[in-house]
Design a protein that fits this description.
Pfam families: Bac_luciferase. Residues 23-290 form the Luciferase-like domain. The chain is of the alpha/beta class and 331 residues long. It is built from 11 helices and 12 strands. Strands 1, 2, 3, 4, 5, 8, 9, 10, 11 and 12 form a 10-stranded parallel beta sheet that branches. Strands 6-7 form a two-stranded antiparallel sheet. β2, α2 and β3 (79-83) form a beta-alpha-beta unit. The longest helix has 18 residues, at 137-154. It is globular and about 65 Å long.
Length: 331
């Protein structure tokens, strides 16, 4: 149960973008930069970029820091998040170096999301590709996270070697993405933000609210909880389904398991995609326990970034859905 002291949703919404493989990748990247610029103009507080390797789950962004640096050159205020750097594949000092350079290029706007990989087969090819045993994921993550935290906190690689550029406040902008309650508790104790998800190797269909409770039970200071929701707004429920159908026709490889309307309904349910008008989606989200303690909401639009109506959906999220989820001030 989420405690009574849990924070309500505060601050502007965030956008979570999955760059999907398929079209020429440079085109995907250009579309995503344009989306980031639009999100900033609409008042979104952050945009997070899904990062996976070797086209796992059709993702198109294996190296997030160069891309964040590119987006930073086209934006001025929106925070830019890595969603996420899989630490078992990385040397923590190299992550620290890449992160501080990217943070400098963005003017201090980097949000450093880290994790272990999704599990359930989504990251199996990545572990194999990097020659890392999946059975070592927990130990590798714990060791490399601790070293990354130390280097960013101290600004030093060793007593004799300083990190350059200096990390500034970047240590306070680490977020841990996890579906594991123990990891969530450790994130709270470390003062890191939490990006909770139920679909992980550690929790088959687990409740995000349990992860939030675990995090809050050890959290010192101000909690940072970024809860994700997937929404597909349209003029009507039928129109929203038409949006999805258009995306299915344009990306058959991505939706190869969807053969009929029953498969589509199951896809919507499995991925907890809220569809309909903005008003209908807001009503569906009011009962979402995962949002009860969120300090920011990460909206995902389940369309390819090049979809002709992606920008329209983004506008509806920014102007019609997100503002109505913020708490009214207490009089």
């Amino acid at each position: 149960m989420i405690t009574s002291s849990s924070p309500a949703v505060i601050g502007p919404p965030s956008l979570f973008v999955q760059l999907r493989s398929g079209p020429p990748v440079a085109e995907v990247y250009r579309h995503t930069i344009d989306i980031s610029v639009r999100a900033e103009r609409l008042g979104f507080g952050a945009v997070w970029f899904a990062t996976r390797h070797f086209e796992a789950h059709h993702a198109a962004l294996p190296s997030v820091f160069p891309f964040v640096a590119a987006v930073a050159q086209h934006t001025t205020t929106i925070r830019l998040g890595t969603g996420v750097v899989t630490l078992p594949f990385e040397h923590p000092v190299r992550v620290a170096e890449d992160a501080v350079v990217t943070d400098a290029l963005s003017g201090g706007r980097l949000e450093l999301g880290v994790g272990k990989g999704l599990g359930f087969g989504h990251s199996a090819s990545s572990y194999s590709g990097f020659g890392v045993p999946d059975t070592d994921r927990e130990a590798l993550y714990a060791d490399r996270l601790a070293e990354l935290q130390r280097v960013l906190a101290s600004g030093r690689v060793t007593d004799d070697i300083a990190l350059y550029p200096p990390p500034g406040t970047l240590r306070s902008r680490i977020w841990q993405s996890t579906g594991n309650s123990d990891t969530a508790r450790r994130a709270g104790a470390a003062g890191d933000g939490l990006l909770p998800h139920g679909n992980s190797q550690a929790r088959a269909g687990g409740d995000v609210a349990e992860l939030v409770d675990a995090y809050l039970s050890t959290c010192h200071g101000t909690p940072r909880i970024g809860s994700s929701v997937t929404v597909l707004p349209g003029d009507s429920e039928r129109d929203a389904l038409d949006l999805l159908d258009t995306d299915i026709r344009a990306s058959p490889a991505y939706y190869r398991e969807l053969r009929d309307a029953a498969d589509r309904r199951q896809f919507l349910a499995d991925n907890r995609i809220r569809i309909g008008t903005a008003e209908q989606i807001v009503e569906q989200l009011r009962d979402d326990q995962g949002l009860a303690a969120a300090t920011e909401v990460l909206f995902q639009i389940p369309l390819a970034v090049g979809h002709p109506r992606y920008a329209e959906c983004l506008h509806r999220v920014g102007t019609e859905i997100a503002p109505r989820l913020r708490p009214r001030p207490v009089r």
